[in-house]
Structures are given as C-alpha cells and as structure tokens.
What does this fold into?
Amino acid sequence: MAATAPRPRTTTRDPQEITRRLTAWLGTRLPGAKAVGVTAPVSNGMSSETLLFDIEHPEPPVRACALRLAADPAAYTVFPVYDMPRQYRTMRIVAEHADLPVPKVLWLEEDPGPLGAPFFVMERVAGRVPPDVMPYTYEGNWLHAASDEEREHLEAATIGLLGRLHDQVPAAEAEFLALPGDGDALRRHVTAQRVYYEWVVDGLARSPLIEDAFDRLEELWPRDPGTPVLNWGDARIGNVIYDGFEPAAVLDWEMAALAPREVDLGWTVYLHRFFQDLTVAFGQRGLPDFLRRDRVEARYADLTGHTPRDMDFYTLYAALRHAVVMLRIAYRQAHFGEVAVPADPDTLILHHGSLRAMVQGSYWDRAL
It folds into this structure.
C-alpha cells in the first residue's frame, strides 16, 4: 500500500451479481423500491467494502445510501471477524448520546444470504475525504492545496470530534464494546492485539520488529491508564467526510472499543505521521505542521480538561497496531501473487524504520 504502489486487491465479488442481489433485498425492506446507480467507490478503507446506491421509491427514508458489507472471506480478509451488528449498534449509540455527525443508519442485515455476508445500510453524506492514495500529504489534492488557516480549522474541528465522543457517550452505554480477557481496559486492548498478531502470522514468518515493539510497550506501560471511554478506534481524518473544512460525517467504527482516551489520540497522531514520513521519504515536504503531536495534545486538553498522558506509549502502540495490519495486507498481496515475501518479513511493514526508531526511543527526537 505504498504511495506509489498499485492498490491491493480487496475482493473477489462480482459487481453485477452484487447489484442484482442488493436490488432484490431492498424490495423486502421497502416494497416497490429499487437500488439504482450501484457503485463500489475507490475507498480509503482496506477492510469492509462500501457500496453506494440511490433508492428509487416514491417515499424513501433517504435517497442516497451507503452500504457497509463485511469483507469477502475469499479475499484474505484483514481482520478475522467482521461484526456488523456491533458497528451498527455503535453508530446508533454515538448518534443518540453525542453531537457527532454520524450518518443515520437505516437497516441491519445479519443474514449472509442476500449479499454473501452481513451488512448495514446508512445515509450517504456528501463531501470530500482526505485521500490515502495518493496520501493527502502529497501535492495535488484539496487538503494539501488548502491554506494553513483552513488546515488548522480542520485539525481543530477533528480533534473536537474525539473530545466530544470521549466526553459525551456514557461508558455504560458502550459496555458491549468491552474486550474479553483479564485486567483493565488497556491490558485487554493490548492482549487483543497480541491475539490478532498471532492470527496474522499463523503458518507464516513472524516479525521480530513487531515482537520487539510489544516488549517495549511493557517497559513503557502507563502507571495509571485512567477511566476507559468509548474509542472510535480508527480515529483519523481519512475516515471523516468534510463539508469544506468542517466534519460532515464520521465513518468506519469497526475498531471501536472501550479504552483509554489516549488510544484514539495516539492513533490520530501516528496515522498522520505514517503518511508524512512516507511523503518525506519520496522527496516531498508534506505537511510537517499539520496534526503535530504537541498541538493535538494541547487542543485535546483545552477541549476536555484531560491532559494526555504517556503518549510515547500510545504512539508506539498505534505504530505497532498499524504494523500488524500492514503485515496482514502484505501477506494478502503475496497470497494473490502481487508481491513476493522477502527474507526479512519486517521489510513488508512500510513504516518499519519509524517503528524501529520508536522502539529505540529516538523517533520523536527527530519527528517534532
């Protein structure tokens, strides 16, 4: 998934067959309705699939729709489980308890029969999304071309999403998102990542770098992780639709969980650094003053009264989590014959250099 590489294959499904089956299913939920203009857009996501369509009906609940479909099991999925009811329920409670712009969810289909996997349908929100390919840190896209003031507005508004989510949704309402296992919410979160890593490397080459990162986490473990809150999970600007520079829709809740606030903050900070580091490596300046760690922490503290703590731990944790995903995606590319597996599996992780620097404790000395 390098900035200059072809986009990895994500599905084996037949678009025409999906269109026919979706039209048949829609008629069971809204008699007389038809699904028209069904498209599968080029998406930032590498996990669940998205279909866009319009409802043709005299009185549709909404006309423009988006459908989130659990990943194709034949496409070497990124995650072992796709719990669509969990995502659907998360979006509903966020919409109920917080003033975040979450798309209205319309229908949940748990039966895999109609489309081959569970899915849910929500309203489609107009706007624009910072691109992943080529990354928004590269020249030639709307966010890079924006003024410093416009990007600052977008940054502040986006950090505001996290602050309001963490403060407004009662943790008790999100208890169904608590991860299994022993210990507090942070320990369970990290344990789940270890389980995920073991699934990724089952029967394949292990990553010494990822395992070193897990060991380093233990050395940096926070003395007080704090009270867990509802975490968005995939908290990054590539999962927000913007109207101008104002958030219009918050998307992709499949990684939501109960966890310390800093899990979301670390992900937001590091996922920008991932794109920024790639951009610099390819000879461009990128956006070095955008979503800086110090500014994100200060903005969040001003908004919530909670000063982020132990951010070396949480940014390392974000880079580690992203590395496991990247390794899975690379092994999927190898499965489809798109890449060859090198002798050193760590080189399959695009950000192996920055992850190693974080493990060694030298990354933020040069990154800030």
About this structure: Confidence is low (pLDDT under 50) at residues 1-10. The two ends are 25 Å apart (CA to CA). Strands lie at 34-39, 49-56, 64-69, 105-109, 119-123, 229-231, 240-243, 246-250, 257-259. DSSP finds eleven helices and nine strands in the chain.
